[in-house]
Amino acid sequence: MRWLSIVALLAAVLASGCGRSDSDGGVGANAGGGEAKAAPGITDRSIKLGGSYPFSGPASAYASIALGAQARFKAENAKGGVDGRKIEFVTLDDAYEPQRAITNVRRLVEQDQVFALFNTLGTPNNLAIWDYANQKQVPHVYVATGASAWGADIAAHPYTTGWQPDYVSEATAYAEYLKAEKPGAKVAALFQNDGFGSDLLTGFKKALEGSDIEVIAEESYEVTDPTITSQMRKLAASKADTFLNITTPKFSAQAIAAIAKSDWKPLHILNSVGASKKLVLAPVGLENAEGIVSMTYVKDPEDPQWDSDPAMQEYKAGIAEHEPKADPQDTFTTYGWTAASTMIEALKAMKEPTREALMESVRTMDLELPMLLPGVKVVMNGEQDTYPIQAVQIMRFEDGNWKLQGDVIQAGGVE
Predict the structure, then answer these.
(1) Handedness of CA 174, 180, 181, 186 (dihedral sign)
(2) Lowest mean per-residue pLDDT among 35-39, 128-132, 153-157
(3) Which of 150, 239, 352, 404 is the most buried (most CB within 10 A)?
(4) Start and end of every Leucine-binding protein domain (predicted)?
């Protein structure tokens, strides 16, 4: 496969001219019985990872993701770490600003000398840093965004991967839901004016081709906008019977509140990144969220069907012990914990302590994680499947909680 050739070439280049001294890290035995020089950020006692998150600014609701990941790494460290190596996760605030993300990542790579970048959040921020990360040959893995770019061109960006279902797969699930439940729907769409918003909306339109469903109105907003009042008025005036809400949490809540105050009562499809019950739905009144449709792939900590689930119990206990300021009921916290579990498994599967070995582990993963919904797996198989998670399940908000609908959908929206 082509990706194997890429990894082999990278390894050969580093071996020929980029060897590092023992002081840069520990050493480990390679497959041939000799010793492989470790990359920066990894020794026989520790692994240093780095991530950039919006701890402040318009997308600060996502800070819970970093807390969930920190808790999972701390829980693993309490059990001895990964092959005796304790994980240090260094996180910096970028306020959801691409330029600050660039500054943060340069610091993480050049000053903190992290072994890998893990789960940095946001489509525009990751697009801003991925050329740099790949030029530096630093793993830039399991990014916290579903943009379809992350697996589209391995040759150009062999060190970057996504984690969650890509936005095209998510959009495909919504389109299939409408075809079954509301054929002939007239859709009004609100979307964030960046790679995140355009990716999901474009994927949705493509998935509708050949159907009687039509997008009849579109409005965009900037992440720096204070409100989306005018956009919502225009969409309501379209008389569409379905509303596709492609927004981050602040604007997701504003959109729900706007509909609640208006006479417009469409079927409301809310993208998964804005579907937090605690941070989005509760502040505007759970009664106003009744009937909203979204999708998921991770077990919901507020769904009583998982109360006796061992993985859920371990998760809640782990948050309470290792990051008590985090809310285990927050689905963003759950997201961070589960993404970190994937990273831990990738680190465990490395054949040697090098960045190339990590990327080989990441790109050959076939994994069932206990916090993912039954039927959802993390699978990567080179060019044939470069998106880790592509199975999702529709959920509907009913009687104060999200309730799963139908079966798991193997979306696979990216071609």
Answers:
(1) positive
(2) 35-39
(3) 150
(4) 46-400
CB count within 10 Å of CB 348 equals 11
177: enclosing H helix or E strand = helix 167-181
Judge residue 26's burial from the number of C-beta atoms within 10 Å of its C-beta, 0-12 exposed, 13-18 middle, 19 or more buried: middle
Q: Which long-range contacts (CB under 8 A, 24 or more apart) does 23-28 make?
A: 25/353, 26/353, 27/353, 28/352, 28/353
| Torsion angle defined by CA atoms of residues 169, 172, 176 and 181, in that order, rounded to the nearest 10 degrees | 100
Selection from 382, 381, 362, 347 nearest residue 42 by Cα: 347
SS (H, E, C) 97-123: CHHHHHHHHHHHHHHCCCCEEECCECH
> Could you give the CA distance from residue 177 to residue 199 in angstroms, rounded to a whole number?
19
**pLDDT of res. 14:** 38
Residue labelled with tokens 């502040």: 283
Backbone dihedral angles phi then psi of residue 384, each to the nearest 5 degrees: -75, -25
27 touches 353 (CB < 8 A): yes
Q: Which amino acid is at 272?
A: S
Phi-psi region of 142 (alpha: psi -120 to 50; beta: other; left: phi over 0): left
**Residues present in the chain in total:** 415
| Structure confidence by residue, pLDDT tens digits, 98-136 | 999 999 999 999 999 999 999 999 999 999 999 999 999
Output the pLDDT for position 37.
65
Q: How confident is the model at residue 381 (pLDDT cuts 50, 70, 90)?
A: confident
Strands 242-246 and 186-192: parallel
46-53: strand order across its sheet: 86-93, 46-53, 116-118, 140-141
The token duo for 31 is 């497959």
Kind plus residue range of the DSSP H or E element containing 244: strand 242-246
Element (H or E) spanning 339, and its range? helix 331-348
What is d(CA 200, CA 120) in angstroms, rounded to the nearest whole number? 19
pLDDT score of 383: 54
**Given a cut of 80, is residue 137 above it in pLDDT?**
yes
Q: Among 65, 56, 50, which Cα is nearest to 323's?
A: 65
What is the pTM assigned to this prediction? 0.84
